[in-house]
Prior knowledge:
Elements: E1 3-13, E2 46-54, E3 59-64, H1 68-83, H2 91-101, H3 103-106, H4 110-130, H5 134-137, E4 146-151, H6 158-169, E5 175-179, H7 187-205, E6 210-214, H8 221-231, E7 238-240, H9 248-256, E8 262-264, H10 270-279, E9 285-286, H11 290-293, H12 295-308, H13 320-328, E10 335-337, H14 349-353, E11 354-355, E12 364-365, E13 377-378, E14 386-389
Parallel strand pairs: 4-5, 4-10, 5-6, 6-7, 7-8, 8-9
Antiparallel strand pairs: 1-2, 1-14, 2-3, 4-12, 11-13
Amino acid sequence: MKIKSVRTRVWTWKGPTVPPQGNFCTNASDALWMKGDAMSSFRFHQWLTCEVETEDGTIGIGNAALAPSVVKKAIDDWYAPLVIGEDPFDYAYIWEKMYRRSHAWGRKGIGMTAISAIDIAIWDMMGKLVGKPVFKLLGGRTKEKIPVYYSKLYAGSIEAMQKEAEEAMKGGYKAFKSRFGFGPKDGMPGMRENLKRVEAVREVIGYDNDLMLECYMGWNLDYAKRMLPKLAPYEPRWLEEPVIADDVAGYAELNAMNIVPISGGEHEFSVIGCAELINRKAVSILQYDTNRVGGITAAQKINAIAEAAQIPVIPHAGQMHNYHLTMANTNCPISEYFPVFDVEVGNELFYYIFEGDPEAVDGYLQLDDDLPGLGITITDKHLQHFDIAE
């Protein structure tokens, strides 16, 4: 059975969105002098679907959220011809073929994101061809069900954040992630605003539940070093992406302080890129994103390296490709879970493009042992809210 076609589409959201607000979430652009919405380049109001089809009509579905229009061009012009005519079960060879034939320009960023989309589709296809869920192909069930953490709590007023946390508590979650709204440019007053919000969320969820804190690359090494001792009394489970992704030495220095565990990796690419984070002890928790890091083929290799180093892996974002990896790996203790919500940052688009993502119940989600592939389909329920480019 050979691959006969690769179809890509870019879905651009034109429906209602939650308007941006100030000090919503720190990010790498905060270091620039600029006007307007600093988060604009980090919003995902486009998504790419990648459908790989075999000669018998079986279709595997992959996806990508980074720069979808550019990734589409890379797949259509470069990677699809490398894949067509291959046996999907030769997935390791296909991966290396894509990786090595584009190595001069594609080993990180756009190229690796394109490889990821195709690889995820191939795994979905393999599951469908053998009638098994992807997690069964990866080793099977290691958990009765997957514990998830509530991931939203973007910076806002203290009252709004506490109200959101109170509502989230009703969902039975035992872990919550909040975002910082202030960074180096906001000085000491911003530090105090950050701490007020951490304290406010802790007041609601208590100390018997985990609290994760995210900077989204919006701090720098100096600022993070000053903040860590101030955060320690609130017992965060981790501090996520305190510095830009390329500052691996900064991650390692912060992690070595052993005050708050440092997490990161969602903006790292490939097996070797993640191995560097592990080998340099740059993170205590690794958070690759499967549709950026090289797909499921690469993710499984990274999982093995991380397990050998006893570094837990908690993939970035929810989404089915991550859930299957979490279910199949003991070293993946919990999944991130974005609640179904109006389109804001853009992580929510997954719910508007695909059907099949499980809903969290009492802080857990479940995968079906009898649903082949990833268990998702592309829905037509929200087509009126998208411009779709073939």
